[in-house]
Amino acid sequence: MFKIVDRKEMADGSIIMNQIEAPRIVAKAKPGQFVILKANETGERVPLTISDLDAEKGTIEVIYMVVGKSTAMFKALDVGDAYQDVIGPLGKPTDIEKLGHVVCVGGGTGIAVLFPITRGFKNAGNQVTSIIGARTKDLLILEDKMKGVSDKLRVCTDDGSYGTKGFVTDALKDVLENSRVDLVVAIGPVPMMKFVSALTREYDVRTLVSLNPIMIDGTGMCGCCRVTVGDETKFACVDGPEFDGHLVDFDGLIQRLRAYEEQEKEAYDNYCATMGNQ
Amino acid sequence: MAEKSTKKEKTPRQPMPEQAPEARRRNFEEVPLGYSAETAMTEAQRCLQCKNPACVKGCPVSVDIRSFVGLVAEGKFSDAIHKIWEKNSLPAVCGRVCPQEIQCEGECVLGKKGEPLAIGNLERFVADYERTQGSGELPPKAEPTGKKVAVVGSGPSGLTVAGDLLLKGHEVTLFEAFHKTGGVLVYGIPEFRLPKDIVASEIASLEKQGMKIDCDAVVGKTVTLDEIFEDGFDAVYIGVGAGLPRFLDIPGENLINIYSANEYLTRANLMKGYRFPEYDTPIAMGKNVVVLGAGNVAMDSARTAMRLGADSVRIVYRRSRDEMPARAAEIHHAEEEGIEMYLLTNPLRFDGDEKGRVTRMECIQMELGEPDESGRRRPVPIEGAEFTMDCDLVVVAVGAGANPVLTQSDPEIALTRRGYIIADEETGKTTKPGVWAGGDIVTGQATVILAMGAGRSAADSIHKYLTWGW
Ligand SMILES: Cc1cc2nc3c(=O)[nH]c(=O)nc-3n(C[C@H](O)[C@H](O)[C@H](O)COP(=O)(O)OP(=O)(O)OC[C@H]3O[C@@H](n4cnc5c(N)ncnc54)[C@H](O)[C@@H]3O)c2cc1C
Ligand SMILES: Cc1cc2nc3c(=O)[nH]c(=O)nc-3n(C[C@H](O)[C@H](O)[C@H](O)COP(=O)(O)OP(=O)(O)OC[C@H]3O[C@@H](n4cnc5c(N)ncnc54)[C@H](O)[C@@H]3O)c2cc1C
Ligand code: SF4
Ligand code: SF4
Ligand code: FES
Question: Does the ipTM surpass 0.85?
Answer without folding.
Answer: yes
